[in-house]
Amino acid sequence: MSGSDPGETPSRLRIWQAEGLTALVFLAVGAVVAIDSLRIGAGWAEDGPQAGYFPFYIGLALAAAGIVGLVDALRQRAATGSEAFATREQLARVGQVFGPTCVYVAAIYAAGIYVASALFIGWFMRRHGRFTWLRTLPVALGVPLMLFMLFERWFLVPLPKGPLERLLGF
User: Fold this and answer.
1) pLDDT tens across 127-167, in order?
2) Phi-psi group of 158: left, alpha or beta (phi > 0 → left; psi -120 to 50 → alpha; rest → beta)
3) Are 21 and 101 spatial neighbours (Cβ–Cβ below 8 Å)?
4) What is the pLDDT of residues 84-111, one digit of tens each?
5) Percent of the chain whose predicted confidence (pLDDT) is above 70
6) Nearest 5 degrees, angle CA 152-CA 104-CA 163?
7) Distance CA 117, CA 164 (A)
8) Around 27, how many Cα atoms within 13 Å sit in the side-chain half-sphere?
């Protein structure tokens, strides 16, 4: 990979392959959305659009973007050739964010979005930002509290709650 340290081992995934895989994911998601929208009705009824009308066109747009991306990735194959997508060090950095984010998403189901968000924000502030507890705690507790007030109290939109919120009567 150009611009990388000579001692770094590049990944085996090439740039054009990564772009092609991403395009295939867009194409697949778009196709699933469009096909399922047809199942629930994607036309125009007497009283307006059916439930799948807008998702159908979003799915078509995603699928079209996937096709364009796939064609572009195949064209780029000659230009990028064997150029690596990322080094192992770069992929490890992505993993440092991706792993905790997956844990956060899973924690939403177990602990609720507010507790999971407080832990997630606190983890990143301490681990990656190296903030002191004096700065971490107000932000990690204050942001979920403000989001609770915004969604639950002002907009009246319930978000996933866990045992702590149920214990407090919410």
Assistant:
1) 999 999 999 999 999 999 999 999 999 999 999 999 988 88
2) beta
3) no
4) 888 889 989 999 999 999 999 999 999 9
5) 94
6) 50
7) 13
8) 12
* Residue whose token pair is 């991306």: 69
Q: Give Cα 92 to chain centroid, integer Å.
A: 18
Q: Kindly report the three-state secondary structure assignment for every residue of 28-96.
A: HHHHHHHHHHHHHCCCEECCEECCCHHHHHHHHHHHHHHHHHHHHHHHHHHHHCCCECCEHHHHHHHHH
Q: Look at residue 1 in the predicted model and tell me its pLDDT.
A: 44
The reply to whether the predicted model has a pTM over 0.70 is: no
H or E segment to which residue 142 belongs: helix 133-148
Torsion angles phi and psi, residue 48, rounded to 5: 125, -165
**113 in Cβ contact with 160 (< 8 Å):** yes
d(CA 99, CA 123): 12
Say what the alpha-carbon torsion angle 70, 73, 75, 80 is, to the nearest 10 degrees: -170
What angle in degrees, to the nearest 10, is found between the helix axes of 113-127 and 133-148?
150
Asked if 76 contacts 20 with a C-beta cutoff of 8 angstroms, the reply is no
pLDDT score of 49 more than 50: yes
